[in-house]
Write a structure and sequence with these properties.
The protein is built from 8 helices and 7 strands. The protein is an alpha/beta fold and 242 residues long. The protein has one domain: NAD(P)-binding Rossmann-like Domain (Rossmann fold, 3-Layer(aba) Sandwich), CATH 3.40.50.720. A 7-stranded parallel beta sheet has the order 3-2-1-4-5-6-7, with helices on both faces. α4 links the parallel β4 and β5. α3 runs parallel beside α4. The longest helix is centred in the middle third of the chain and has 29 residues. The protein is globular, with a radius of gyration of 17 Å.
Amino acid sequence: MNDLEGTVVMITGASRGLGAALAEAFARAGARPSLCATSAERLERVRAKVEAVGGESLAMPCDIRDPAAVEEWVAETTRNLGPPRVLVNNASVLGSRTELRHAPIDEWRAVLDVNLTGSLIVAQAVLTRMLRRGSGSIINVSSGAAVPPRRNWGAYGVSKSALEALSANLASELEGSGVRVNVVDPGSMRTAMRAEAYPDEDPAELKEPAAVAPLFLWLASDASSGVTGQRFQADEWLAGRR
């Protein structure tokens, strides 16, 4: 995607899994990734890989539940790399796979705090800059556990369903502003979270997170100009491009 050259892309949950794979993919496309996660050590390893492929980047530990910390991350990104044009809301936690009637309330609040409220906090912070420029792309990472609703997914499934509702509302409210909001369900991937959710599954049978990067690059680029308020299932989209 040649039009991503120099584009500032902010990625939450970038220290491993999909977030780490996207950081490297965007760097290879010429973008400038700004990465956040709670683990400084893992985040630094990802930043080193990004810079090894020639990418200019920033990595900053940040708890997306904290509006002040998020604002500091966005401000540092703007000062060091430039104003954000793309946000990938990827950070999430799994919690217990349980029936809702048994869901521990403290855990329920913790999962929704990250997966839903945290995504809104980061979106609010970047929207100030995006709306000023009249352009931007927000990509919220959902899950197959969101649509249709699935039993025994506890707070996680509900949080992802709510994230999709949040995305649809944001897309509607931002219509005509130049800022687009879309959802990606990446499908089954070889990640630590997937192994936690399905401990008996053979990870060798799953795709690497990097396999879905082309969809994110497309949604970040001018090639998808005008596309907003949509939900993309990555495997279906990739199959349609072959």
